[in-house]
């Protein structure tokens, strides 16, 4: 059984990683919890046993740790992932630090599990909004070959961490935001992460580049608009896809219904479609509102929702760890 570490164990995603490891009964010989000096000494319970959080240091991985799940931000990952890998540990990193590095596979287990084979000690977990999109798109790309994607996202405040969550909670009582640039309560903000020179935000660029890398389609035409909405948990996405080949809507539904990690929720006559309040706490990607886009030859509109802290982060990371130990 592997020795496992969670780095960033006290954060929102780190705690969820522990929940998911426990729920899925991931085999663990020894568990180590790391965080910054500020959180060191805190106690966290895992499988009815209390663990003390340790400060992450350069020698933290000198104990034969096999797998480390990192969710402590890009600067921590840049500093410590290579140190961990040099000691024989495989790092599954939830930050953006390594995602576009050519030496690092970027993996969604339902989409490109084979890419874990060429890891050199670091495997990157994609951005939450990308993960749920590619789970829904990959089976359709295999059958009809995607020509172009237009993403429009409606992203929950928890994607911005605990402080994003607090901004919404306080905002409904009229308290000014600390994390976001504007009030998020009773508002939507078309701005996630920083603006780049071309007018896109970094979140939008992540969706574009990561989709291409995960789907092995470097030239795929993709564009995105990413928006923060006053929802605690669960990112929603309107995805407009144009295929090379024609499709039948009933076939698309059948493919999605039978694809791993997807729950089809598409019964408009009964008001059934995915929504964040239903996706919260679940590990699957929910897909609905499927309809033809007749403004192009072979176009499809879809609505895709998932729990951003689970499938968009912790669950995907634990699934990668499961792939590693299943080899
Ligand atoms: C967000 N996608 O929702 C980001 C988190 N990685 O802010």
Automatic annotation (TrEMBL):
Belongs to the aspartate-semialdehyde dehydrogenase family. Keywords: Amino-acid biosynthesis, Diaminopimelate biosynthesis, Lysine biosynthesis, Methionine biosynthesis, NADP, Oxidoreductase, Threonine biosynthesis. Residues 3-119 form the Semialdehyde dehydrogenase NAD-binding domain. It catalyses: L-aspartate 4-semialdehyde + phosphate + NADP(+) = 4-phospho-L-aspartate + NADPH + H(+). Catalyzes the NADPH-dependent formation of L-aspartate-semialdehyde (L-ASA) by the reductive dephosphorylation of L-aspartyl-4-phosphate. Substrate binds at residues 155, 228. It comes from the Bacteria. One of its GO terms (biological process) is threonine biosynthetic process. It is an enzyme of class 1 (oxidoreductase). One of its GO terms (molecular function) is NADP binding. SUPFAM superfamilies: Glyceraldehyde-3-phosphate dehydrogenase-like, C-terminal domain, NAD(P)-binding Rossmann-fold domains. The active site is at residues 128, 235. This is Aspartate-semialdehyde dehydrogenase. Phosphate binds at residue 99. The keyword Electron transport does not apply. Homodimer. Its EC number is 1.2.1.11. Gene3D superfamilies: Dihydrodipicolinate Reductase, domain 2, NAD(P)-binding Rossmann-like Domain. The keyword Kinase does not apply.
């Amino acid at each position: 059984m592997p020795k496992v570490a969670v780095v960033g164990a006290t954060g929102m995603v780190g705690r969820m990683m522990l929940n998911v490891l426990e729920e899925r009964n991931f085999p663990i010989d020894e568990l180590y919890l790391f965080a910054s000096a500020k959180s060191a000494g805190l106690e966290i319970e895992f499988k009815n046993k209390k663990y003390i959080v340790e400060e992450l240091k350069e020698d933290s991985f000198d104990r034969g740790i096999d797998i480390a799940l990192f969710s402590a931000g890009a600067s921590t990952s840049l500093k410590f992932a290579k140190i961990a890998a040099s000691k024989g540990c495989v790092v599954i990193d939830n930050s953006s630090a390594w995602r576009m590095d050519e030496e690092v596979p970027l993996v969604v287990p339902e989409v490109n599990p084979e890419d874990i084979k060429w890891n050199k000690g670091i495997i990157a977990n994609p951005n939450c909004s990308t993960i749920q999109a590619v789970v829904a798109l990959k089976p359709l790309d295999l059958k009809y070959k995607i020509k172009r994607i237009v993403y429009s996202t409606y992203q929950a405040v928890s994607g911005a961490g605990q402080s994003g969550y607090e901004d919404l909670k306080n905002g409904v009582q009229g308290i000014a935001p600390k994390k976001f640039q504007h009030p998020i309560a009773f508002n939507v903000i078309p701005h996630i992460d920083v603006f780049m020179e071309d007018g896109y935000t970094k979140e939008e660029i992540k969706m574009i580049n990561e989709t291409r890398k995960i789907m092995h389609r470097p030239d795929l035409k993709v564009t995105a608009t990413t928006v923060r909405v006053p929802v605690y948990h669960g990112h929603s996405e309107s995805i407009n896809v144009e295929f090379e080949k024609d499709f039948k809507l009933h076939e698309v539904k059948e493919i999605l219904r039978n694809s791993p990690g997807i729950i089809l929720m598409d019964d408009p006559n009964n008001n059934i479609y995915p929504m964040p309040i239903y996706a919260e706490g679940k590990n699957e990607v929910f897909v609905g509102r499927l309809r033809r886009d007749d403004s192009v030859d072979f176009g499809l509109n879809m609505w895709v929702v998932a729990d951003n802290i689970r499938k968009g982060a912790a669950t995907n990371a634990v699934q990668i760890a499961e792939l590693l130990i299943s080899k």
